[in-house]
Amino acid sequence: MTGLLTGCSTSVGYKTLDTSDTKGEKVEALIKEDSRIKNAVVLIHEDRLIAGLRVNTFERFHKRKIAKEVAKELEKQYPDLKVTVSADSKVLLETNKLIEQENKKNFTKKMKKLSALVKEET
Amino acid sequence: MNEKKYQQLEQQITPKPPYVKNCLTAFLTGGAICLVGQFVALFYITFFDFTERTASNPTVATMIFLAMLLTGFGYYKKIAQFGGAGSAVPITGFGNAVISSAIEHKSEGYVLGVGGNMFKLAGSVILFGVFSAFVVALIKAILVGLGVVSW
């Protein structure tokens, strides 16, 4: 219930977890550079990168475009990673949950599921 | 008294509807319904595998279901009396239209009464909803085909 009530107001700021510790800081810096994004949670594990973004209130109209731009940039810099970027609050929420759980065993499974979820249309 | 005179008299006597107040109550009621809907959507996003995009379908279903229950128990008409269009325009008004006509025609039997009249008003909502969705999709398909916009 607390999650329901605070769902919108969670200000996680910027949070990054890179299990291989090589790209995390760079990715976070790249996202911080974009002034349209106010919160971001990034999780890099093995060959997958998931970034959940929260954009400024009035940029929400272009949030899919912003996510696409960030994804393109990340894909260009890290062609060996499977990049999923979304401005959907579900991604931010779930990625944040994953990072807080710190259970690296199910990272890959959960990340795969999230990537599939983002692609769902209806 | 001829027709013109009567109309003049009628217009003089008819009390002016309080447009500003009606707008305000409609705004508040519609806003309150949408707030509930937002919480329902948040519920589906938080506890089930729905994203912001996909949560709209179960949210709509839930809101219609709630409106149907409220109609059946007789609470929705009280909301509608207060809120007017604010309670009719959101999707809950659709649920209300279905159930209230079903209740109204129950005495005529289940097949010709309830079944035949349930979608009397809601049927046109569905028809024109589907039709306008088709037109919009057609326009978008043409625009994508011409390369103006992308999906």
Helix and strand topology:
The complex is a heterodimer of chains A (122) and B (151).
Chain A: H1 2-6, E1 14-18, H2 24-33, E2 37-45, E3 48-55, H3 63-77, E4 82-86, H4 89-101, H5 107-119
Parallel strand pairs in A: 1-2, 3-4
Antiparallel strand pairs in A: 2-3
Helix pairs in contact in A: 4-5
Chain B: H1 3-13, H2 19-47, H3 56-73, H4 76-83, H5 85-88, H6 91-104, H7 110-117, H8 122-146
Helix pairs in contact in B: 2-3, 3-6, 6-7
Order of helices and strands of chain B: HHHHHHHH
Overall form of chain B:
extended
Distance between the termini of chain B: 64 Å
Helix segment tally of chain A:
5
Order of H and E elements of chain A: HEHEEHEHH
Global outline of chain A: globular
What is the terminal-to-terminal distance of chain A? 26 Å
Strand content of chain B: under 5%
Overall CATH architecture of chain A: 2-Layer Sandwich
Which class of secondary structure composition applies to the elements of chain A? Answer: alpha/beta
Protein name (chain B): Stage V sporulation protein AC
Pfam families (chain B): SpoVAC_SpoVAEB (PF03862)
Transmembrane segments (chain B): 24-47, 59-76, 125-149
Keywords (chain B): Membrane, Transmembrane, Transmembrane helix
Q: Key features?
A:
heterodimer, A: 122 residues, alpha/beta, GMP Synthetase, Chain A, domain 3, four-stranded mixed β-sheet, 5 helices, 4 strands, 46% helix, globular, disordered N terminus, B: 151 residues, mainly alpha, 2 domains, 77% helix, extended, Stage V sporulation protein AC (chain B), transmembrane helix (chain B), membrane (chain B), Spore_V_AC (chain B), transmembrane (chain B)
Can you describe this structure?
The complex is a heterodimer of chains A (122) and B (151). With 122 residues, chain A is an alpha/beta fold. Chain A has one domain (14-121): GMP Synthetase, Chain A, domain 3. Chain A is built from five helices and four strands; from the N terminus they run H-E-H-E-E-H-E-H-H. In chain A, helix 4 (89-101) runs antiparallel to helix 5 (107-119). Chain B is mainly alpha-helical. Chain B has eight helices and no strands. Chain B starts with a helix and ends in a 5-residue tail after the last helix. The model of chain B has no long low-confidence stretch (mean pLDDT 92). The interface between A and B is medium-sized, with 16 and 13 residues.
